[in-house]
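Chapter summary example.
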Amino acid sequence: MAGAGKTLHTIGFVARPSGTKPIAENRRARHEYHLLERLEAGIELTGTEVKSLREGQVTLQRAYADVRGGELYLVGAHISEYAQGNLANHDPDRDRKLLLHRREIDSLLGKVQERGLTLVPTRLYFKNGRVKVELAVARGKEARDKRRDLADRDAKRQIERALKDRGRSSGS
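The structure predicted for these 172 residues follows.
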C-alpha cells in the first residue's frame, strides 16, 4: 500500500517507495555560511544507522565534508545509536564516506583548496529508499553579514505583519 503521492517500484521482489522524505535539515548552515553551490551525494551507512535515520535521530549542526586520499567523508554528523540495536550497534560519531563520482570529488577539492571554501551538509533525506545528503559549497559569513541578515529578516517580518493588520482593519 503506497501513501498519498507515492508510487512503488518493484526491483525483483522488493517494493521500494519513490519520492523524497526529509530526515534532517541544517538550518545553522544558512545562518553561518553563504551557500554558493549545492549537490547531492550518497552516503555509506550500516544497517543500524539507517534505522536510526528512519526515526530522525541525527544532528548535522557541526558537520562538514572533508577530502582524504581522494575520497570524501562526512565528519561531525551525529547519528544516535539504534535503541533496539545489539552489540553490533554503530559508533554515533564516526566519519562516513560520501559517494560521488571521481570528477565531482576533484572539482570540489579544487574549489575548497583554491578559494578557501568549505563543504557543509544542508539536508539529509531518503530518495527512492536510499539516504542522500545535500552538500553546499560555502563561504563563511562575517559577524556583520549575520547581523545584516537578521535585520533584513526582522524588517520583512514587520512588513508582513503590518500588511496583514492593514488587511484586517480595512476588511471589517
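To summarize the output: Residues 18-141 form a domain with the Small Protein B; Chain: A; fold (CATH 2.40.280.10).
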